[in-house]
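SAMPLE LOG
Freezer: B-3
Tube label: C17
Construct: single chain, 201 aa
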Amino acid sequence: MPEKKYRARTGVEEFYYAVLAETGADIVSTDPERVKFLQSIEIEMPQEAVRAYGDNTTAEIAISNGNISVTSAFHKLPIEDRKVLFGLESTIGGLHSYGGSDNPPYVACVIAKTFEDGSKEWVGLTKGIFMRNNIAAATKEDGVEFGNDEVTAEFMDREVDGFDVPKSVIFGLDEKGSTTNRDALFQAVFGKPYPVDPAGV
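STRUCTURE (predicted):
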């Protein structure tokens, strides 16, 4: 058995998303798009134990899985990404809008949790919808205080190659210098390779 790793995560980076096709085939219709400067992400995967009783005792226990919700905070979520993730309507002149008819698309996402030894755990979210964020601002005081953009999303199961039943969250760990699981995760979630920057960055 390989040696177990007990290092705790120390950071998060590389948030990617891609829009799923509307055909219902759960295939990605756009190339993965990166949103830089991810500050935090929380993936809630609630479970509840449900008990059946008989003869004044527990006869059986089953697990009830709740909805998967994601809360992400970014230094700034650019308008180009908000238009896609929230399904916003825009004018040719450059105005953007929120309204009752907004229809966000299904998207798939990938993020990387980082560790001090250089390893990364890649996490893929297979199918979900983002909800528009609140608009908030505050007056500038004596010092500079940066705001951020926090968004929430709900995810569901989707058929993924290599798994027998639909999945909502997939993950894999790469040791420092390795990209094997990263590349496999991008193919599983997006059906596309990890994007390589032409500048090599």
